[in-house]
Write a structure and sequence with these properties.
Chain lengths: 115, 111
């Protein structure tokens, strides 16, 4: 149980285009999902908390107009990187929370390369 | 503020033991431990709630000292499959708060 699917696993795009990443909880409902960014050999840095049916909560320094988050259902959250630039290239990982103990289960991640 | 993990990296021979520490500057409600292999998602290992509990999972166990705001992960008789980067994730309060991940510890187990 507690499987989280993230798609796509790898995306290459041109500078200025937008990229959408999907995060799905396959066997449970997740009222809360999280989006992280991870640079090589570094830790996971929380970008935003995605709440079903309401606006996402962004961490300090994360541009909400650039990283659009939509959590339209209890099993799906999406992250759209708008007008991507090379500095947005990174590994983006989502997680979904289940149970009362705030255990997070992670998707496999999306490697974004902006040319 | 990001929890600090020590050591940053460690190399073990198969069968040896290791301890990974996680220190926070803030009061903690819980500590979560994850292992991440290169290019993959972090995998949940265990959660420790305040109360000074210890937990075990196979040959991996952990402790949580809430007074010292520290947690330690113990790897016993390490196996090749234990290789990866270990992260602690700290939660400061309530059941709805976010996790702040530590600086990470790279563990390599060799033959």
């Amino acid at each position: 149980g507690a499987v989280v699917s993230q798609h796509p696993s790898w995306v290459i795009c041109k500078s200025g285009t937008s990229v959408k990443i999907e995060c799905r909880s396959l066997d449970f409902q997740a009222t809360t999902m999280f989006w992280y960014r991870q640079f090589p050999k570094q830790s996971l840095m929380l970008m935003a908390t995605s709440n079903e049916g309401s606006k996402a909560t962004y961490e300090q320094g994360v541009e909400k107009d650039k990283f659009l988050i939509n959590h339209a259902s209890l099993t799906l959250s999406t992250l759209t990187v708008t007008s991507a630039h090379p500095e947005d290239s990174s590994f983006y990982i989502c997680s979904a929370r289940t149970g009362g103990k705030n255990i997070q289960y992670f998707g496999a991640g999306t490697r974004l390369s902006v040319l | 503020q990001q929890p600090v993990q020590s050591p940053q990296a460690v190399i073990l021979r198969e069968g040896e033991d290791a301890v990974i520490n996680c220190s926070s500057s803030k009061a903690l409600y819980s500590v979560h431990w994850y292992r991440q292999k290169h290019g993959e998602a972090p995998v949940f290992l265990m959660i420790l709630l305040k109360g000074g509990e210890q937990k075990g999972h196979d040959k991996i166990s952990a402790s949580f000292n809430e007074k010292k705001q520290q947690s330690s992960l113990y790897l016993t008789a390490s196996q090749l499959s234990y290789s990866g980067t270990y992260f602690c994730g700290t939660e400061m309060g309530g059941t709805a708060s976010k996790l702040t991940f530590g600086t990470g510890t790279r563990l390599q187990v060799t033959l």
